[in-house]
Write a structure and sequence with these properties.
Two copies of one chain form a homodimer. The first copy, chain A, is of the alpha+beta class and 203 residues long. Chain A is built from nine helices and eight strands. In chain A, the strands form two sheets. Chain A has a four-stranded antiparallel sheet with strand order 1-8-3-6. In chain A, helix 8 crosses helix 9. Chains A and B meet through helix 3 and helix 5 of A and helix 3 and helix 5 of B. The structure holds a DNA duplex (30 and 30 nucleotides).
Chain lengths: 203, 203
DNA sequence: CGTCTATTTGAATGTACTCAAAAGCGGTGG
DNA sequence: CCACCGCTTTTGAGTACATTCAAATAGACG
């Protein structure tokens, strides 16, 4: 019984206990150790994943060997190489556990079986993607219109848990900047915070 | 009768003639002149749009007045301020016709009515978003891992029709670079092409 | 404690931007 | 049909934001 997953689904559609049982029966539980790969570049990604605990990153390695983090995920989030899963074609992305991580995964077949059996599940899935798409459009907007410091501040405000839990170098990559530069930004922001505090409450 | 729209839908799901009539009846036809706004920043976007002819851009104006093109659309594409439409909340984006443009639009109410009446339409809509999301993930990948010249070359290869039909300044904004810089890139690429041709077939 | 990796810091560099001016293009009216 | 106007594109010079590389420091893990 995965209370978190049920909660994630019920936040988008109403589900009877009977329906929930059929959904849960379609999932499989998967465990990964720190740094273990959940799926790889070049493979067909067979699963879409709900994170029960732990964290992971979805990333690409481009021509010159640079890693680019496309997505980060922590407990209660969904994450996979979506394009590869959807089209059942070899993917461009790696998915890797960043710590010991427990997933509740739906295989491609399971998802499509549920679409046929439970219209409410297809609706849930549609809403899930809709939300993800809207979030992505927002992220694109930010990447286009903000400089590195603004992106970091926005990220820190929006996802404080990621900012704490995930290694800085992965956060930097997610935000589209070098790890060194993020380090400099954090220093600058920290000094500004200090100054502001002093200014706000002068002894 | 909108053959193009029917084609767009049938490319994703099978639709009977009867079902198609109910879908088409739910649409409305809307015409826009060049530069006219289809929806605006701050408004709730009531429609999702299929482009029957013409072209449009979806863009954001940020703090310092800079315009950032999030999406471009031409005949046969779907485009709207998706986040605003989906959540029925005031949007951050403008949608504007780039030339005389004919849309076939679905209101928020019409879409939801169709979801209830025709499960096949909900499936179509899910597949449409799925595809858009996968494309977006790809674009994000490219924005993170490619420099300006590579992004332009990829764009030109992927969407030659957009490259020809849309003003360079909008393409530049879509690609996340200044119009001036795109101009310089095009010159460089053109000179390279010339050199290559000379090298390939020396008199 | 020692090793391995992550983060910090600094210097030099580069990619892309801004600003300004010139050239090109398209439409409209005389 | 030509001349002019407005807008887009081109071009060049100076600049800035962010990168790369290298070395030092700090942290985590066995």
């Amino acid at each position: 019984m995965s209370a978190l997953l049920l909660q994630s689904i019920r936040s988008l559609v109403p589900v009877s206990d009977d329906q929930w049982q059929r959904i849960e029966a379609a999932t499989q539980h998967r465990s990964f150790k720190k740094d273990e790969f959940i799926s790889r570049d070049g493979e067909i990604n067979r699963f879409t994943n709900f994170i029960e605990s732990g964290s992971l990153r979805v990333f690409h390695i481009d021509g010159d060997g640079q890693e680019r983090v496309i997505q980060l995920g922590v407990t209660g989030w969904w994450a996979s190489d979506f394009a590869s899963f959807t089209n059942q074609q070899p993917g461009l992305l790696h998915v890797q556990a960043l710590e010991a991580t427990e997933l509740r995964s739906f295989s491609y077949e399971a998802v499509h079986r549920l679409f046929e059996e439970l219209p409410v599940f297809e609706r849930f899935y549609r809403l899930l993607i809709q939300r993800a798409y809207a979030a992505f459009q927002n992220r694109m907007l930010q990447n286009l219109s903000m400089d590195a410091e603004q992106r970091y501040l926005q990220f820190r405000q929006l996802y404080p848990e990621l900012n704490e839990q995930i290694l800085q170098k992965h956060v930097a990559s997610y935000l589209g900047m070098s790890a060194e530069f993020l380090s400099k930004i954090k220093k600058r922001v920290y000094e500004l915070d200090k100054q502001q505090k002093r200014a706000t409450k002068p002894s």
